[in-house]
Each structure stands twice: as structure tokens, then as C-alpha cells.
Specification:
This protein is α+β, with helices and mostly antiparallel strands. It is built from six helices and seven strands. It has two domains: 5-56; 87-234, Nuclear Transport Factor 2, Chain: A. It is elongated.
Length: 236
């Protein structure tokens, strides 16, 4: 059965209208997806930019100083951390290290051994362990097993600067007073030690940090008698 000519034209127009509506809906969907994708891209790019820029966001506190006499205003430089402590502090650590590590008293030997190790770099600590090992005949534990003791008195500390400008060498002159037993006179010998030192990050161990809060480390130490003459007794 064939539809009349006017109806055929109407049906063709209706089909074309439906096809246009479907095509428009598809174009709208594609456009919506593109807009959504663009929005997500912008959001991701913004998040990445924030993450990258976060380390650059900082607040620097500063102190403004006014001279009471002249009224001049300036900004106090901020402390950046790596500054070397005052020479008086280093002098204390060097003197304390020699006093603790070169003396011997059986009552404090264990504590002195541990405290001295708190000031040593890793390589120096290995040599320190080897020295105190009871299997070593020259160990202080064997040398002084007869009950003798050694007292140390630091006489002077001098610092030396290398050609590069680094000051990491100290020379210590000290006195060893050895007593062979209770009631005996002390016998004195003069010694000189050359120490290479450095400041590192303080230990995280609370026990080590109690002894060495600033991270002072002895890298190398050479000690020898200043005079090879026989030690002279002195009344105690």
C-alpha cells in the first residue's frame, strides 16, 4: 500500500527532524565530555602547581635592632645553623676529652670509657675499643691491674689554622700523675697531644647527647711524651 504523496513528504520531514535531534544530542554530549575533561585537567594542573609551589611558601622571622646611641636601624642576621661554636667551647671539649680519656681509675674506668667514646668518630672508636680490649697486653685494664691510677692535668691548649683557612687542629700539653698505690708519691710525666676535631650533628642517643650535646668529634689523636727523661717523683 503506497501512501499519498503529501504524506510521504511529511514522513521524510519528520524523519529528518528526528535525525537532526539525535545528531544535536550527540554533539551536546560530546561537548559536555570535552568541557568536563577540560575542567578535570585544569583541576589536576592546579593541584600539581600547588604541590610544587608549597615548598616556596615560607615565613622568615627577623629581628630589627635599633642602636640606642645613634638610632640606626638594621636587621639582625638569622642564624643558619652551621656556625662553629666559640673557641672557648672547643677548648673545653678538647681539655675534657684529654682529661677523661688519658686518666685511669678503676672506680670510674667503665664510665670514662663510655664517655670518651661519645666524642670519637667511628674509626677512632674502633681503635679505642682495640686499645681497651682485655686481650691487648697494653690495655689500661692490664697495665693498671696492680691498683695504680693516673690523674691528668691539662696545662695548655693551642689551635692551629691550615693553609686552607680551616681551624681543626689542636695541640694539648698535659701532665700525667701516676700513683702506684695508696700512700705513695705521684710520678709526673709531661705529654703533648695533637688532635684533629670536627663538629657533626649531635647524636640521637640521649645518653651520648648528655655527654656531647654539640656533636664534637675527635677524628685523629696522636699523643707522645714531651720529654723522654725519667719521670720525677713529687710529693702528693
Amino acid at each position: 500500500m503506497t501512501a499519498p504523496a503529501p504524506l510521504e513528504g511529511y514522513f521524510r520531514e519528520a524523519a529528518a527532524w528526528d535525525a537532526d535531534r539525535i545528531s544535536a544530542a550527540r554533539r551536546s554530549a560530546r561537548l559536555a565530555w570535552r568541557v568536563a575533561a577540560g575542567g578535570w585537567s585544569c583541576a589536576v594542573a592546579g593541584s600539581i602547581a600547588l604541590v610544587v609551589l608549597m615548598p616556596l611558601k615560607r615565613v622568615d622571622a627577623f629581628v630589627v635592632r635599633v642602636d640606642n646611641a645613634t638610632g640606626i636601624v638594621d636587621v639582625v642576621p638569622a642564624y643558619d645553623g652551621p656556625a662553629r661554636p666559640d673557641p672557648a667551647v672547643t677548648r673545653y671539649f678538647v681539655s675534657h676529652h684529654i682529661t677523661i680519656c688519658e686518666r685511669f681509675n678503676l672506680a670510674t674506668a667503665e664510665s670514662d670509657y663510655e664517655e670518651c667514646g661519645a666524642f670519637h668518630a667511628a674509626q677512632r672508636n674502633q681503635a679505642w675499643y682495640a686499645l681497651w680490649n682485655p686481650a691487648n697486653a697494653a690495655s689500661p685494664l692490664n697495665v693498671h691491674k696492680d691498683g695504680s691510677s693516673v690523674r691528668v692535668q691539662v696545662e695548655s691548649v693551642s689551635f692551629f689554622q691550615r693553609a686552607s683557612g680551616v681551624t681543626d687542629l689542636a695541640q694539648v700539653r698535659y701532665l700525667k700523675a701516676q700513683r702506684t698505690g695508696a700512700g705513695t708519691d705521684e710520678r709526673f710525666t709531661h705529654w703533648i697531644a695533637t688532635i684533629q676535631f670536627a663538629y657533626t650533628a649531635p647524636s640521637a642517643d640521649p645518653r651520648v647527647r648528655r655527654w656531647n650535646p654539640l656533636g664534637f668529634k675527635v677524628i685523629e689523636l696522636t699523643s707522645e711524651p714531651e720529654a723522654l727523661s725519667e719521670p720525677q717523683p713529687r710529693a702528693g
